Amino acid sequence: MVAGTLPSSPSIPKFSPSPSSETLKGAFKHLNLAFFSSTAKSLRALKTTRGRGSALGAQMASETALKTPFLLDFETSVFKKDAISLANRDEFIVRGGRDLFKLLPDAFNGINQIGVIGWGSQGPAQAQNLRDSLAEAKSDIVVKVGLRKGSRSFAEARAAGFTEENGTLGDIYETISGSDLVLLLISDAAQADNYEKIFSCMKPNSILGLSHGFLLGHLQSIGLDFPKNIGVIAVCPKGMGPSVRRLYVQGKEINGAGINSSFAVHQDVDGRATNVALGWSVALGSPFTFATTLEQEYKSDIFGERGECFPTPIILY
Length: 317
Ligand SMILES: NC(=O)c1ccc[n+]([C@@H]2O[C@H](COP(=O)([O-])OP(=O)(O)OC[C@H]3O[C@@H](n4cnc5c(N)ncnc54)[C@H](OP(=O)(O)O)[C@@H]3O)[C@@H](O)[C@H]2O)c1
What we know:
Layout: H1 21-36, E1 82-86, E2 89-95, H2 104-107, E3 113-117, H3 122-136, E4 142-147, H4 153-159, E5 169-171, H5 172-177, E6 181-184, H6 188-201, E7 207-210, H7 214-221, E8 231-237, H8 241-251, E9 261-267, H9 273-284, E10 288-291, H10 294-309, H11 312-315
The protein binds NADP nicotinamide-adenine-dinucleotide phosphate.
NADP nicotinamide-adenine-dinucleotide phosphate binds at residues 16-18, 20, 22-23, 118-123, 147-148, 151, 153, 172, 185-188, 190, 193-194, 211-212, 214, 236-237, 240-241.
Pfam family, one: KARI_N
GO biological process, one term: branched-chain amino acid biosynthetic process
GO molecular function, one term: oxidoreductase activity
C-alpha cells in the first residue's frame, strides 16, 4: 500500500475543502447557532426512543445528544486496527488497500443497495469508487445514484455507467427509500433544507452516511437530532471529489493510493455501524482511516475553511 499523506490527528483542525458556494452560504447561515449549540444543550441527556415505521415516525429528539467523551478508539470485527503515536498520543487507524476489498461483503453485512445521493464533487467519485471496489470484491451490492427531478446531472451519471435501465440511477427519494446505506452527498445547504423529507424516506435500521458533520450542526442549532431508528455515520475524505477518484484510479497499479478519510459513528442502532463506515472508507481507497466524531468534524472543518478562506473580522462576527 502506498500512503497518499500521513495520517492526520482529528484533534488538529484540518482543511478539508468543500468550497461550493452553497456549502459556504449554508455555513454562514447556520454558523452562529451551530457553534454555540454545542455547549449546554449538547450536555443534556438524550431521550432515546426506538420508533417503528418510517425513520421520521421515530420521534426526533427535541434535545441534542449527550456527547460521549471524544474517544479515538473503536472496535471492528472486520478490519485490522493499528495504533500509531502522534504527538505522544496513541491514535487508532485502519490502513486501506485494494487487498482489503475482499472484506467489503462482511463489512457491508445486511446491505443490498447503497444509494449515493448527489452528483457534485464527492458524488461521482464516491459512487464510482464504491462500484469498482465492490465489483472487484465480486459483491452483488448495488450502488445506485439518486438525483433530484430534472437534474442536469442525470446525463453525467449515465455517461459514468449509472443508468435507469440497469437500476443504478433514479429519483432521489425513491433511491433513499430503497437503500440500506444512504450516502447523502448533496450540498450542505440542500441537506439543511430537505432533511425532513430525507429522514421520512429512510427505512428503519438503514444507515445514513455523511461526508461532513454540517447536518448535525444544523439540527443542533434548531434543537433537533437524527431519528433514532437509523444509524448515522460519516466518512469524510480529506480532499476534493475529483482527487478521491483520480488517486483511486491511479492506485489500481499500486494497491490503493488515495485520500485519507476520517470516520465517525454518531448512532449505531444494531452494532453494524463501525464496520459499515470502515468498509465505505476502504472502498473509497482511503490509505488511512482515522476516528473522529461528527461534531468534531464539522467544527474543525468549518473553522479550517473559514480560517483559510476568509479574513479574521468575518470569522469572528
Ligand atoms: N467538495 C468536496 O470535495 C468535499 C470534500 C469533503 C466533504 N464534502 C462534503 O460532501 C458533501 C457533498 O458536497 P459536494 O461538494 O460533493 O456537493 P455540492 O457541490 O455541494 O452539491 C452538489 C449536489 O447537490 C445537489 N443539490 C443541490 N441542491 C439540491 C436540492 N435542493 N435537492 C437535491 N439535490 C440538490 C446537486 O444536484 P444537481 O446535480 O441536480 O445540481 C448536486 O448533485 C457535503 O456534505 C460536503 O460538505 C465535500
